[in-house]
């Protein structure tokens, strides 16, 4: 179905939200072009993430869930341990497909980007690489113009910022928007082969260590995918130079020994990544420009929902543009429908992260005593997030 009001859309950012939105727009007969700052697809870029059942259901609606799952692995569940290696909780995901319609899929970030970009391009969504946004011109009430470094420009009926937590679209079109806030945690990660690690294939283990947090997933073919979170008082400290491997090993001294084995077996330690979020913004849109995904409501990884929320955004915004030909009214409907869900998850992610790093032995003792209760609350929040579904056929009220 061709839109009366919106026929050409400029999408800034080709990571997750951009290709998903582009494919849904293509479904309703809207021409979409993605402009990506990276010079080319980088399948080995970054670490890994989980696409939750609610995100996989969005991909299933598009018919690309199998292509994504083929590049990743289903996670059967998550075990939680304290610094002594004692189990403190389990979230069993083995019946997720029955309960939620899809399972939790672990996948390398670069592989997910590549799978989505390839499928979008196959369906006719143009992707232009090496296009770094420089400014947005909204002076003409009939269209919006994106200007890129080097002098190129693109015109569309609307422009959607899908360019992540450091969004240039947000800075250009909503200059008064609050900047993402540093949460006090820094992230590292890597991929290793460590046959001696006591990890069950298809399961994740999360360890609340004495001074830092460590998570590992036993991926197919014997590889261990891992990440580490630790507290840093300021971004400058997190970015300070120094041997990354030695910093991580020191922070996990006294924790289960297999953690050090995995870190030592890692050819290249990835990071550091400073973890930022956006708890709330006054508005996500201005005129013919709208933000989605991390550009509007960045969440830290601690709730496991960042990628899936971006996918949901793409599906719902396309539905709003399908049903409401006036762009600003479509954007207002999108924001009204999305804000309660995403901001609740951003807050939950920050609460989860606050328990990952402790300031000393007393704080660690108190945290460990409260962890079983925290995990029950977190598991209930995760179940609500996973059960959420968007009905593509439903009309925007």
UniProtKB/TrEMBL annotation:
Record-annotated FAD-binding domain positions: 9-173, 281-348
Gene3D superfamilies the UniProt entry points to: FAD/NAD(P)-binding domain (3.50.50.60)
Keyword terms of this UniProt record: Monooxygenase, Oxidoreductase
Cited SUPFAM superfamilies: FAD/NAD(P)-binding domain (SSF51905)
InterPro entries hit by this protein: FAD-bd, FAD-dep_Monooxygenase_BioMet, FAD/NAD-bd_sf
Domain of life: Bacteria
Name of this chain's protein: NAD(P)/FAD-dependent oxidoreductase
Naturally occurring in which organism (per UniProt): Sorangium atrum
High-level lineage: Bacteria, Pseudomonadati, Myxococcota, Polyangia, Polyangiales
């Amino acid at each position: 179905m061709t839109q009366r009001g919106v026929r050409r859309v400029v999408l800034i950012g080709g990571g997750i939200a951009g290709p998903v939105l582009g494919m849904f727009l293509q479904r309703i007969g809207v021409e979409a072009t993605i402009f990506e700052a990276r010079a080319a697809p980088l399948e080995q870029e970054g670490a890994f993430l989980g696409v939750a059942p609610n995100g996989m259901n969005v991909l299933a609606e598009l018919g690309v869930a199998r292509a994504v799952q083929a590049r990743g692995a289903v996670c059967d569940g998550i075990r939680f341990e304290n610094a002594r290696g004692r189990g403190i909780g389990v979230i069993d995901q083995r019946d997720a497909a029955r309960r939620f319609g899809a399972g939790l899929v672990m996948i390398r970030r670069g592989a997910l980007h590549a799978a989505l970009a390839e499928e979008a391009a196959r369906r006719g969504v143009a992707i232009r690489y090496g296009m770094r946004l420089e400014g947005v011109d909204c002076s003409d009430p009939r269209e919006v113009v994106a200007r890129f470094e080097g002098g190129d420009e693109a015109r569309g009926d609307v422009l959607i910022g899908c360019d992540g937590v450091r969004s240039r679209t947000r800075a250009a079109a909503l200059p008064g928007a609050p900047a993402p806030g540093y949460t006090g945690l820094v992230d590292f990660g890597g991929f290793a082969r460590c046959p001696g690690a006591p990890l069950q294939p298809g399961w994740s283990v999360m360890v609340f260590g004495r001074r830092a947090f460590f998570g590992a997933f036993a991926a197919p073919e014997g590889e261990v995918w891992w990440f580490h979170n630790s507290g840093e008082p300021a971004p400058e400290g997190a970015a300070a130079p120094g041997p990354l491997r030695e910093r991580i090993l020191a922070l996990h001294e006294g924790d289960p020994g297999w953690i050090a084995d995995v870190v030592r077996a890692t050819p290249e330690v990835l990071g550091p990544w400073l973890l930022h979020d956006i708890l709330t913004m006054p508005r996500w849109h201005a005129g013919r420009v709208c933000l989605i995904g991390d550009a509007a409501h960045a969440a830290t990884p601690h709730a496991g929902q960042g990628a899936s929320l971006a996918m949901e955004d793409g599906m719902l915004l396309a539905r709003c543009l399908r049903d409401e030909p006036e762009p600003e009214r479509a954007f207002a409907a999108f924001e009204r429908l999305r804000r309660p869900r995403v901001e609740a998850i951003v807050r939950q992610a920050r609460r989860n992260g606050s328990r990952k790093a402790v300031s000393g032995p007393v704080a660690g003792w108190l945290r460990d005593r409260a962890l079983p209760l925290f995990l029950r609350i977190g598991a209930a929040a995760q179940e609500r997030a996973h059960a959420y579904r968007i009905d593509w056929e439903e009309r925007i009220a």
